Amino acid sequence: xxxxxxxxxxxxxxxxxxxxxxxxxxxxxxxxxxxxxxxxxxxxxxxxxxxxxxxxxxxxxxxxxxxxxxxxxxxxxxxxxxxxxxxxxxxxxxxxxxxxxxxxxxxxxxxxxxxxxxxxxxxxxxxxxxxxxxxxxxxxxxxxxxxxxxxxxxxxxxxxxxxxxxxxxxxxxxxxxxxxxxxxxxxxxxxxxxxxxxxxxxxxxx
Length: 206
Prior knowledge:
mainly alpha; globular
């Protein structure tokens, strides 16, 4: 991934949001004030109980109340680093909430940052990563989570190949037959990302 592609990933975050029809029936109607209260509680005290309390208020689908969503998205953006720490610590309900946030976020840059966070989780618990990907696939473009490694990898094509292969190995370690289909799908996406063109690899800034 080069710098141009990284920017395109951010823009694609908006496109992902735009994939959904403008109205959905959902089992959970989002109360934005209540969400902010639960979000703040979770960020301040990241217990499993508070993570579940947060997850239970997130709607299953994006039903577009843009003004309110922009406000909440801005609040989420301020705490992404903290959320990242909780995800990489394998907080079960924090992970569920993080994948569910795609139903709320309406900013391509924030969506791209969330893709990076959730993508890194693949190494922490590949089986649960696949499980959450499966549960939230209606909100997610797999390639954007699997293949967005973040700014540290921009123009570092050799490092990207190393990370891609590590992700494939992590996914191949999962033996749950219930996840075999989505596992194969993700591995195929990652294999297509491996850079073999010598001319491109020579441009790597590694």
